[in-house]
Prior knowledge:
Helix content: 25-40%
Order of helices and strands: HEEEHHEHEHHEHEHHEEEH
Strand content: 15-25%
CATH class: Alpha Beta
Number of strands: 10
CATH topology: Rossmann fold
Bound molecules: S-adenosylmethionine
Amino acid sequence: MKGEVLDIKKILNNLSENIFIKESKKGLMLIDRISKMTFSLELDDYDNIIRQNKKHVLSKILKKDQLMILDCTGGFARDSAIISSLGNNVTMIEENLIVMRILKDAMSRIQNRKVDCIFKRITTKLGSCLEYIKTTNKIYDYIYFDFMFNNCSTALPSKREQFLRKIVKNDINTNKAIVEEVLQRVGCKVIIKEHIKSNNYQHLDIINTYKEKVVKYHLLQGKNGYYKLYQSKK
Ligand SMILES: C[S@@+](CC[C@H](N)C(=O)[O-])C[C@H]1O[C@@H](n2cnc3c(N)ncnc32)[C@H](O)[C@@H]1O
């Protein structure tokens, strides 16, 4: 796992020509040169989502609290915040330097006490989730995946999603290979979120699918029966 010191030069080299980061009084801002669209991540805004956490489908899937959850595709931590707000401990992995830099900056600017408590239960790690799973000796109850969707829905995505699309690489075959390898390596439950119209994980042994209007969540069981035993001996 890479160190958490995020070099701004490295980050700028990673950005496409049309996107740049501006440091403002309100924190870091992403700007699209062409459309002139701007975006600042404000985690206090998650208060609205968190307030409705009990109605969220993740509350039905997880059932209990005090769980150890590994969010393999952290992004701007909206899902991690929901999972943490349900009383769980979250380790959130994000491999994209820019996304992590924007998130860390936003975390340092949280004002809302409830949101602050929720983010105190989220540990962030920069790097590839597969590398993390291969090397960690931590045991998780659930592993969560939410890769970028390939289908564009008819509704206009939020600015947060639009910028994520502009800065994050996405390859469905790579994503599928990661999920398949993780299922072989772990013995805990695995949750995969995908667009309601996609069927990228049909070939896997899905225990249950929880459907919402735009997205669905598949619940699967990791195949490694020795997971807990092996990990605790390490
Ligand atoms: C759709 S976004 C996740 C959004 C997130 N669930 C949220 O609520 O904000 C997917 C994120 O996963 C990250 N990602 C993709 N593959 C990854 C991997 N193998 N390891 C770590 N992060 C990964 C991408 O960089 C991107 O930021």
